[in-house]
Design a protein that fits this description.
With 83 residues, the chain is mainly β. Helices cover 13% and strands 36% of the residues. The protein has one domain.
């Protein structure tokens, strides 16, 4: 599904922050760059940590201008120990 980019809002002193609707029960997002191989995760962020300059750097680094945000509920985590 392709959508227009969400708007950016000023967030001094950090720069322009991406403004998007977050599901009420989610508290983190996985930021992915979209490549011909699919969604490539590049980080896990709080919703207010997605800034224009970071996205522009990722565009240059990954040679793409397409992104996907995947909302995450951290209250549904799985803990394990590798032996």
């Amino acid at each position: 599904m392709t959508n227009a980019a969400p708007p950016f809002v000023p967030s001094p002193p950090f720069g322009d922050m991406l403004e998007f609707k977050m599901p009420t029960d989610c508290d983190l997002v996985i930021l992915c760059v979209d490549t011909n191989m699919g969604h490539e995760p590049v980080g896990v962020y709080l919703p207010h940590q997605i800034y224009r300059d970071m996205l522009q750097r990722l565009c240059l680094q990954h040679r793409t201008r397409k992104f996907t945000l995947i909302p995450v509920r951290t209250n549904e985590k799985i803990h394990f120990t590798l032996e």
